[in-house]
Design goal:
57% of the residues lie in helices and 19% in strands. By secondary structure, the chain is an alpha+beta fold. A five-stranded mixed beta sheet has the order 1-2-5-4-3. Strand 4 and strand 5 form a beta hairpin.
Length: 228
Amino acid sequence: MEEQKQGTVRLLSGITAREALAILDERSQPFRRLMAFYRAAIMEVETKFNVLNAELSLQYERNPIETIKTRLKSINSIMDKLQRKNLPLTIEAVEQNIFDVAGIRVICSFPEDIYLLAEALLRQDDIVLLERKDYIQNPKESGYRSLHLLVETPIFLMHEKRPMKVEVQLRTIAMDFWASLEHKLRYKKQMPADAEAIGEELRICAQISAELDNRMQAVRKRIEAEME
């Protein structure tokens, strides 16, 4: 890695600023192209969820999806991750080792909606499931809950069809609320001395959040049963 940096320094020394910018632009072009591919993959999967939401809203007379959030990892973050893994700064290394470049977070109303949407997505013949991590049935030690799916979907370019990986996270409003606040609290620059006690309090809050999800789902079922 250090040899690459030294080589770049030697390459850029003795040339004009315009020439240096042209070289840097040429070297970054493949990464920008790859980011465009990931952005297209995000749009493909997001569209699938929007279509499913519209279809299921007709069937159940309610929208199972509250919001959809998308995220494209920055080039700087990707480079940092490659360096931490001692991997080369290449397009191939990104595609083969960094699986969270393209991300979609689907916020659902109730826990049942998470599995309903996940199963509907995975039944589509152009979606390939690469990895599934169910942190709802098996929460992380911190209390974090969410369903993670790593999927592959094709994007259709002018002259080719290209498979791209997208990380999908499905969680309820309560799960997302807890995860957002937990991230802000846990990743402060200076954690207090009683960090362990705070971690335990966060786990208790996660349990309360899970109970809230289950009770709200039970209330919904009760209402639907009485309406029938």
